[in-house]
Fold these 3 entries.
Entry 1:
Amino acid sequence: MTNKTRDILCSIIVLAFGAAMIYFVKDVRRVIRSDVGSAFVPTLIGWCIIATGAAKLLFSIFTGLKSENKKIVFNQDFFGGVGTIVLMVLYMLAFEPVGFVVASAVYLFLQMLLLSDSTNRHILVFALVAVLLPVAVDALFVFVIKMPLPVGVFGF
Amino acid sequence: MITAALANVFNPVCLFLIWVGTVIGIIFGSVPGLSATMAVVLFLPMTFSLEATRGIALLVGLYMGGISGGLISAILLKIPGTPSSISTVFDGGPMAEKGEAGRALGVGILYSFIGSIMGILALMFISPMLAKVCLLFGPAEYFSVAVFSLTIIAALSGKDLLNGLIAGLTGLALSMVGMAPIDTKVRYTFGNYQLLNGFDITVLLIGVFAVTDIILAGFGRRTLSQRLEQKKYQLKGYGISMLEFIQQIPNAIISSIIGIIIGILPGIGGSTAGLLAYTAEKSRSKHPEKFGTGIIDGVIASETSNNAVIGGSLVPLLCMGIPGNTVAAVFLGGLLVHGINPGPLIFDKSGVYVYGIYFALIVASVFMLIFERMGLRIFAKLLDIPKHILLPIIMIMCCVGAYSSNSRVFDVQCVLFFALLGLLFKCFRIPSTPLIIGFILGSMFEENLRMALQASHGNWMIFVERPISLSFLVIAVVFCTYTVITNLRGRKQAEEEGKEYHEPEEGEL
């Protein structure tokens, strides 16, 4: 993918977003006569987004900069990135049913494992941090701040 | 009256309560998701059993510590501990990246103190006069202030104005989710009742600033340990020389004035004050291109103004009983419980307590300066924790912070949504700061536009017929035009030189 292709793709998403903004408030009716109504500002923002997206699209197509046609080199660790996202999704899904302490302990351990490499992978340290930190945070919230965090099926 | 107030504040119990309040406030302010408001709310019931001055002194300490504590995580972790510290991230974060975390923290703490003192002085000496000016502001003026504040987007968009606009408009769009102001019509909730109140600013901040960075760290995990070695910090005094201090006097004065004015105007808040002061300093600076790369000017502008808001927000509260922000509203509750009725007669009826508040604020500022400086070495030690351990811990704290903002798991899930949005922005080289500005100002923009139009029976001329409103609109147009022209000129120059105009940010995919 080149910079130009990326900008064109971005413009298309922005145009679609602007159109969706306008579409989803089209049925919102005005109830007070002197008022512009609840659809006015979202519609205005929607049109502004479309105008900006269109300007970006035109600029992306007609720009003459050589750098815009440069290929983007992806020098990233996709396993690390996607793995982090997957772990976050699972953690957030488990936050309520499993409970804060257990979900956090498992997430912490796996995330530290994922971000570490063979030179700095200390399993015992990871396990200790993964257990002690959620317990300490939970105790702080329950006993000091008096705001219980989700307990989940295990009851803690 | 002043002597009685001095005696009330400068006794061991009261000083101890201010100290406790300041320290706890700093802790609440430094943890993303916990806020000054939360600290004041939690400790409010405890003040009921205390004598009035002592109870208020505790609340003052919490308020002061809570606002200033936000700079710690803003600089060290690039996560604003409180919304007021958003603009501290812009230069504080890069300073920490360059190994100047200690200097950034020291300067931030010192100018938080200076901003606080300036705000308190304004509260003490010019509050009645300022309160009268505040009364001249109606919906039309607030709308124009919002329009003017939105022009910050142009200034903070960097070299790519279109991308900045996209981010700002997306922020505005996100602020439209939920029940509309005035007629409570439901928009963009798609049948989800959890969205009726819209998104929480804390959740957006945590997602875009913190969790996006953690995901990016996942993509760049091979270099995590290398990055750690580069980040050393230095600590010497408050990190600023006498010459620099003198050079920064105009910055501090202008930022304080902005903070005080924004504080007086109800409903705007410290985050807007910080952003306005940052933009003002960037526009005034001889080297605007250095802003965002890690210079003390940006940290000073942000921290001075957001702390000056504290004194400013107490002006309408004490003189008219109007709370300028959420913390001030809780504070008002505390005053009423102790039989202090804010309003024009407060100086006659409860003068001792008013002076007590002034002195408590000054003491809390001094405590904040001392204890934050003492803890600076400990705060900066955070950077010594290996990134592969620190980042997952931050993630846990982010989720706890998001959950505690409304006690619902939905906010935790929204954090991930905003993190992915932040990631998408990085992919498309769109800056995320204008997104926050748009989101903060969105509701203020819409609500005041509609209220002003209702008051004028649909006459749009109300915005140009009122002098204060017109002034803000004219300034907004001039500022925007200037920024666009500067931007186009820079782009043209780059094209002539045949160089790539956009410089990819660090961590960009």
Entry 2:
Amino acid sequence: MKKAVYINGIAAISPQHTFETAEFLPTPVNYDDNYLLVVDADYKKYINPVQIRRMSRILKISYTCAKNCMQDAGITSLDAIITGTGYGCIDDTEKFLLSMLHQNEQMLNPTAFMQSTHNSVSGIIALNMKSNAYNYTYVHRGLSFESSMIDAMIHIQEGKKNILIGGFEENSKNHFEVTNKISFWKKNHIPSLALLEDKNIGTIAGEGANFFVLSADKTANTYASVLDVSMLYKPKSYDEVAAAIQDLLDKNNISTADIDVYISGLNGDSTMDSIYYEVADKCLPSAALLYFKHLCGEYYTVASFGLWVASMILKRQEIPAILQVSKQEKKQIKYILLHNHYRNINHGFYLLKHE
Amino acid sequence: MEDLKYKLKEQLIEALNLEGMKPEEIDNTAPLFGEGLGLDSIDALELIVLLEKHYNIRIEDPKDGRKIFHSIDTMAEYIQSKQLSA
């Protein structure tokens, strides 16, 4: 029999005030920019001064987030550390490659190179915890975090108790400029909270680190349970997406009418959003339609922020108005379907249940 | 010589990301490694790069680094001696 997988700890460092706060998106921050950065935490509270000076921004963000997540779950040891990232420590990678270019491959600084690897985050978490447990980083573009989730769920099925899982990504100017040339981002500056009002192509670039403790046992701090996660690559039409959702629900003996909330990855890009509206209208008409990328921007592992949102909703049984596309009163929120896609290439689906 | 030492401290703070530290707070005679600033082997690599980048001085034998990087005084003396002999 399939074992339940519980989310027992969560933490998010995002462009919103989501870290070290008991409130759920109390005062959303509105950015008049297409380039969102996280609201910095007090990293010195979590990292010793000798280490902090050598850590890049994304390492500080991710490590702090991971540590806070474990505190939230009330655990000090882990059976596995699994992360997902599309670009890893891209800022250090760019720094290292640019210095190779500008300095003719001479006099290269070691620190940026050492930290430029994608697994620096899970490595530094393990080093600081003196953990020899399974340690893995998935780098599969828009399915990096989904791959991590599936791996973690398999480990729980195999008997592991507590697994730290995280999705992280950092914004970098160089990457932003390159992808801006191929119209990833909106050319016009719009207020981020009015993202869906703009009907042009492109979206807003974001970043963040979102960590979770997945466990085999339910605790007093449990946020939700993860029933299933699935992925879909390059669907040709809405029908393929609908079939993937139906397949996921069937496998878990849940009907479309059971889904109370559909958290979508709507990002304001007129060429990318129609699939979410179609799913909401045709497949899940009774579910409340929510979105979250106006709060955090777009990035490869942004579904991890969506999972943070879903976990908060299921535990608190409340939906902040800022997340709602269509206002629907829900007395009890039992099932949530989180659906995110990256440029309609990588689709990820998460089926979550209130505990 | 004092100007060189001050500049060296500024470069050291930048290269090693010694957040919140000012050049005045680094003692010219204090050991850079172990006690004192508490630098480690990765910092030693950064200092080798710093000398090459800013002063065009290449340390051929890594063993020499122990003496050269003992303190700001020893680094400045080494830089000056190399510049005079160039």
Entry 3:
Amino acid sequence: MHLPAILPWGVADGFSKQMLLVILSVVIIATFFLLAARKQQLVPGKLQFAGEMAYGFVRNSIAKDIIGGKDFMKYVPLLFSLFFFILVNNIYGAIPVIQLPSFSHVGGAYVLAGIVYVTWIAIGIKKNGLKYFKLATVPSGVPVYILPLIIPIEIISNFLVRPVTHSLRLFATMLAGHLIVMIAGSGIEFLIMQENILLKGTSLLVIAGAVAMYMLEALIMALQAYVFTLLTAIYIEGALHADSH
Amino acid sequence: MNQVIISAATEGETNPLVPNVWEMGVVLVGFAVLMFIVVKFIVPMFEKTFAERAEAIEGGIAKAEKAQAEASAALEEYKQQLTDARAEANRIREEARAEGAQILADLKEKAASESARITAQAHVQIESERQAAVVSLRSEVGTLATTLAGRIVGEALNDDERSARVVDRFLADLENQNAGAAK
């Protein structure tokens, strides 16, 4: 499934296109926001305004609205980095020639979900001590006789399934979108090469479908970056306020 | 493209859920670098601007409120001054009116006293003239009486007819004298 490496050329475990794109994304994000934030003025220019819109979106619409209170600022850097790191790496899939969402390779998704997993558990323990695990797995107000059923379910859903779904959701949508666009591309190529004029004509239908799928994919790419970040904020909020849940 | 698919198909065994460790490493390091830049530079820079902007807006609002308060205070002061000035004008007008009435009354009184004085003076003068006339008349009457008596005595008072003629002549003289004086 993985493309061969570009350096050294053709070796399976070498430096791949995906790695290059990941590094490039860090450069793109850092450059854009450093440029946007460089000449800070009270009345922003176009670039600064765009930067502030993007930053303000994560800061206010995700961090402030979900985590809220006084302590959301502490988590803005993580959420901000996650959102734009995933967004740029996903949008790669919609750019011709590059056409590879970095998270269609599962490794990156595992890493990010792992970072989030460690983070929210650490926050929970720091905030509530070891009692956090009891708070997170034993819901209040549930009859005692149901607890033997509830506790395993809570443990599995919170501590085992959550990081898996968190990472696989991102990976699977990116891989599926990538595959669909690839298959549509190959299908168009295959049909156009046919001698039969009617078969050749059907390629038009596939082209129309591919364009529609491409648009849908572009939407999903942005949406998944938002979903991943939003879920991170929700997990952190849950860990912060475990006692009131 | 076909070759890619073929090569993927021939690899076959690759499980998409098994990660490439090197890719994980790159993502981990890349994300760590990004986090560092974000924490160290990007977030502080944006937050600084946000704080400055909020402060500028709040400062502006405070300044505007202050100006508003000053303006309304000035307006209040002007209104007060206007009221004062009106009251002052009214007071002055009232005073002037009262003063005018006073002056008028004074003048009237003065005129009345003057006329009274003049009348009194005239009375006195008339009285003194009358006195003088009485005095001169009295002496004149005396003289006339004496003259008349002399005449009467000077004539022979032997008959009534003659004395009556004397008296008549005297009276005629007297009348003539009077007529001459009247001319």
